[in-house]
Prior knowledge:
Elements: H1 2-19, E1 24-27, E2 29-30, E3 35-41, E4 47-51, E5 59-61, H2 62-68, E6 74-76, E7 79-89, E8 92-102, H3 105-109, E9 114-118, H4 120-125, E10 127-131, E11 136-140, E12 152-155, E13 157-159, E14 162-171, E15 174-182, E16 190-192, H5 194-199, E17 208-214, E18 218-226, E19 229-232, E20 235-238, E21 241-245, E22 259-261, H6 263-266, E23 269-274, E24 279-284
Parallel strand pairs: 4-9, 5-8, 15-22, 16-21
Antiparallel strand pairs: 1-11, 2-3, 3-4, 3-7, 5-9, 6-7, 7-8, 10-11, 10-23, 12-24, 13-14, 14-15, 14-19, 16-22, 17-18, 18-21, 19-20, 23-24
Amino acid sequence: MRARTLLSAFLVLALCCVRGEAAMEVPFRWTPGQIEIQVSFDGREPIWCILDSGAEFSMLDAAVAEALFPGRAVQRGGRERIEDVTWKIGPLTMTGQKLTLWPLDNFRRQKRDIRGVIGCELFERYVVTIDYQKRVIILNEPSAFRPDASASEFRLTFDGRLPVIPAKLKFGQKSVAARLMIDTGASQAVILRFPFATEHHLFGPDAKTTTSETVAVGPTPFVTLSAEELTLGSWTFPNPAVKAYGSPKGAGGYKSTDGLLGNDVLQHFQVTFDYSRKRIFLEKTR
């Protein structure tokens, strides 16, 4: 009897792992355009943060850091940061984390209560699924994660710590392949780097230029491009909203990727990041 009981318990545990029942769920607030989660640092009152797969390090607003952690900032690599911080995100606790201090004034100018950014550290530790319809983030241990059979798998490459997938864009009779960084911190559909747009002669004489806020450098010029199609694997999106950086300043001048893919496209899928196996899954939703 004892052996049978132990076997039954083992089978139940194995089934739970396969089904992902041990996964943690974190609700998020949708701007729309950005994923906002509440995070408590070292037991302090939770603050709203952006979940950003396009951030190579997590950030805390410099003014908030001074109020929460007076005297704890240290200089590392030319930047100030707080070290050995415990994050609490819903049911999840992550210890020994770092927060780079950054003046997140753009959110204040937008009258938003965002004071932090959670970046690649969360994606590197867990398999992260973003369910845009249910407004939840699902966190799985890599060893327990099993993808849904209906999801399409894409192989990831990395630009430093940032995930990149291949895509195709059509401009009139011109079709161009692009390496797009998957950026859950971006509300737009596609933003192309200035060198890529210049190389492929995508700036027309009547191109419209606007200015938008960015976390890194504040107000930044963007040029609206007229694209007919965006293709990701077997999916094609007609008339996607595509912009390009209007100058090579900051991220606009990067050449290691051709652009970024943001939430305006990603929200049509349930998106799963599995960094441990260098893959991402897209499952189309209604």
